[in-house]
Amino acid sequence: ELYFKNLSKQKQKEVMEKNGNNHKLRVCVATCNRADYSKLAPIMFGIKAEPQFFELDVVVLGSHLIDDYGNTYRMIEQDDFDIHTRLHTIVRGEDEAAMVESVGLALVKLPDVLNRLKPDIMIVHGDRFDALALATSAALMNIRILHIEGGEVSGTIDDSIRHAITKLAHYHVCCTRSAEQHLIAMCEDHDRILLAGCPSYDKLLSAKNKDYMSVIRVWLGEDVKPRDYIVALQHPVTTDIKHSIKMFELTLDALISFNKRTLVLFPNVDAGDKEMVRVMRKKGIEHHPNFRAVKHVPFDQFIQLVAHAGCMIGNSSCGVREVGAFGTPVINLGTRQTGRETGENVLHVRDADTQDKILHALKLQFGKQYPCSKIYGDGNAVPRILKFLKSINLKEPLQKKFCFPPVKDNISQDIDHILETQSALSVDLGGTNLRVAIVSMKGEIVKKYTQLNPKTYEDRLGLILKMCTEAASEAVKLNCRILGVGISTGGRVNPREGIVLHSTKLIQEWSSVDLRTPISDALHLPVWVDNDGNCAALAERKFGHGKGIENFVTLITGTGIGGGIVHQHELIHGSSFCAAELGHIVVSLDGPECLCGSQGCIEAYASGIALQREAKKLHDADLLLVEGMSMKKEEVVSAAHLIQAAKLGNTKAESILRTAGTALGLGVVNILHTMNPSLVILSGVLASHYVNTVKDVIQRQALSSVKTVDVVVSNLADPALLGAASLVLDYTTRRIY
């Protein structure tokens, strides 16, 4: 065994010499706080164990040297590491300015240290502002940087800092396959990326079976049993300090109500940390019999505490990363770790806006035991990292290479999917039917109700209220949280006031109708109203082909012809709410009469009513039916019969459909010359029958500069219902375009 070990070391030495590393590789490890030391320590032990290959210099800065945070540099000394340099870099304060000043102070002090050490490579961990100062200094002084845990996605300013360090770093050690893909997508050279796993897992996966009862007793008391206590660790979110302080208050209130022994660790050095400590003291946490508040727990003991806890709660990366190795239940609060890969042990409460929601999560998670997760490592990270360090060729230029692969999405469970799905009540008032649906945030129609549209105002409004009330009641059983009511209706609508100004002839007694007030009063929900064409455009913008498109037009081809225009991501209503009445663009001065009273409108040619009119003419002249078609005596002739006849070879039916498609195409050409959109979406039951003719007309009639426009058929089954839902979902979730 000794022979083979020596042989392996000799081969590694030969590799280092081949790569130009004739001397020992001088590695500088800089650690800023207790969290990054838990990841860096295993690497430091590995480097120290191979003195024939490496020289280790340790630089300590940041909160390690602050008494309020436990003077955690002492645990580095206890691990028998020689600290080469101590840098006091933290500017005390409770706001963002103090963080910036701390970075500046570190940048002032670090050059002298690096000039003296002259390391071949600096190892930097994570996403802290201190680490950004380290990476910036090393990069500007042409020192190679190895970044640990790059490519991960979490939340807040941490993402920006982590990715900024990635761009400064020359080599990358990542923990998961997705993180590796993110690094590749961020243009990093695949040859300089090592998928090693998290170094802390090398210690975690062998730690659980050690004596833990003495550790639990020391930190939580003699009477506490395994799986019967909680570990809480919550940090301020620097991009929204006030909200994170409020969330911490709610968390403490929920923990007090839950009435279990709880170990609360002080937060990181960040803007807002002192305010969080004040909240703890205001609520008497340090003197509460159920709580133990501590500044620091040595990592070896912390591992034992979370491994045998009934639950961990907070927003620390430790909760979503390391704790999964033990299957301990975790409640992740807020957005600080949004995007992190997690095991099934993690329950997210991203919108932790009430004590009850956090308390409910505690009841769901406490005391469970999940399968152990190895998403972040298999316990062999350090040997891989040491081998990677030895393979670094110091003769290679510092300049980086770039490439552009795709990024994989990450999906994890959220408490809102357990408690309730945010949804809208969607109402569609058509010429024939009245439909109400429960529509989820993702555009899924959870349940739909359909009735014939009554002929009178009183009956119609009464039916809307009845159907909406029933749907709202059903939504509770379906775990859907109704955020509001969106209404799509034909005619001219004032969306600001929720009033139907003028109706189409298809809906009687429907002018000067205030829809918002009676429905809002009855259901106690906000109500939005818009024209059905505009709603179709909104549906495309949120759920369909128009998603992410700056300028596009939607045309609805159904009983009538309608549409909506989105310009610079905004829906256009016009000065008198009459914009996008696309069905009434005139394409012929002496064309057939339209329901609007004019002649030659697109609607007079291409609507379902127009096709029905032409089908009746053919039927009356006994020219409609061809071989393969039959009609019952009482059956009403419709546009569907005309389309069927055209498909079966009826040349007159084909000619009528071609004329209708040409009229629609001419209208589209006029739209292209007026609005110059990049996309035209044809929606409705007739869209697929018109799309090819419309494209042909554009190629024949349009200016060359607009001929390249995309014309597509909508893939949305219910654009009016989805558009009405988007009125609610966009506003109530503050996604206002």
TrEMBL record:
One of its GO terms (cellular component) is cytosol. Its EC number is 2.7.1.60, 3.2.1.183. SUPFAM superfamilies: Actin-like ATPase domain, UDP-Glycosyltransferase/glycogen phosphorylase. It catalyses: UDP-N-acetyl-alpha-D-glucosamine + H2O = aldehydo-N-acetyl-D-mannosamine + UDP + H(+); an N-acyl-D-mannosamine + ATP = an N-acyl-D-mannosamine 6-phosphate + ADP + H(+). The gene is Gne. This is Bifunctional UDP-N-acetylglucosamine 2-epimerase/N-acetylmannosamine kinase. It is found in: Cytoplasm, Cytosol. Homodimer. Homotetramer. Homohexamer. The hexameric form exhibits both enzyme activities, whereas the dimeric form only catalyzes the phosphorylation of N-acyl-D-mannosamine. NCBIfam families: NeuC_NnaA (TIGR03568). In the C-terminal section; belongs to the ROK (NagC/XylR) family. In the N-terminal section; belongs to the UDP-N-acetylglucosamine 2-epimerase family. It comes from Asarcornis scutulata. One of its GO terms (molecular function) is hydrolase activity, hydrolyzing O-glycosyl compounds. Pathway: Amino-sugar metabolism; N-acetylneuraminate biosynthesis. Pfam families: Epimerase_2 (PF02350), ROK (PF00480). The active site is at D532.
